Amino acid sequence: MTPISVRLAEGEDAATVAVLVHALLDELSGGKAPTVEEITERAKAVLSETGVVAVIACADDAPIGVMTLNECSAIYAGGKFGEISELYVRPEARSKGIAQQLLDRAQQEARARGWKRIEVGAPGQPEWHRTLNFYLRNGFEEVGPRLRRLV
User: Coiled-coil annotation: which residues (predicted)?
Assistant: First the structure.
């Protein structure tokens, strides 16, 4: 198997992050994701924020996975914590431990930043049951559905 490298994204990686996040959104939405150009502009803005970290996984210098983490704060969490906003591995690279390496990097970031927890929202069930099971196998606990309200 090709060695996988995992590294923090930098400002010039916004386009790479955007391509991978676009693929994630396209898969989740059944092909209805915003354009790569729109997502690139969003990525540039979001990645410039101090509380946001993106991690890129590469095989032979080709990007094959991405994860974004946000620093959040809540009383119930005892202060600051991390939230995985996006985690994606290209379909042809799945089940090879890449997502696990991204989660391991999230753990490292959490420790370095003094976070006591990491949270993630899994996509809708039962369609994405493999995603939920992956997180459960990796020590996450279900705490209920996540809801949203657009404004």
Answer: none
